[in-house]
Structures are given as C-alpha cells and as structure tokens.
Input
Amino acid sequence: MIRRSKSAARNQLSPERIRRSVASSSAIETGEPTAAIEARLKSGKRRFPQLTLAD
Output
C-alpha cells in the first residue's frame, strides 16, 4: 500500500513544469535544443488542429 503525505497531495504540477519536462524529454530523443522545443510548446500553435484526444 502506498501512503501519500498530505503535502504531496496538495503539490500540483504547474503547466510550466509539465512543458519543461516534455521539452527536455523530446530534446533527448531528437537532439534538438530544449529551449527551441519549449518555445514551440509555449506558442500554442498546433500542427494538426482538427485532431482531438479520445474521450
């Protein structure tokens, strides 16, 4: 059984931290600079705007 402390439940990941982790992971896989990927994610431009996530 995993016990979670009350403070851990309150700590939510900010969109900035998620964006940074996605950018760094993608940078490792592609060899592209992290800053370039992070800037692209911040721009909000979608490559395929007609596609949505499944329900």
Summary: The CA atoms of residues 4 and 37 lie 33 Å apart. Residues 14-41 form one domain. The two ends are 30 Å apart (CA to CA). The first helix runs from residue 6 to 10.
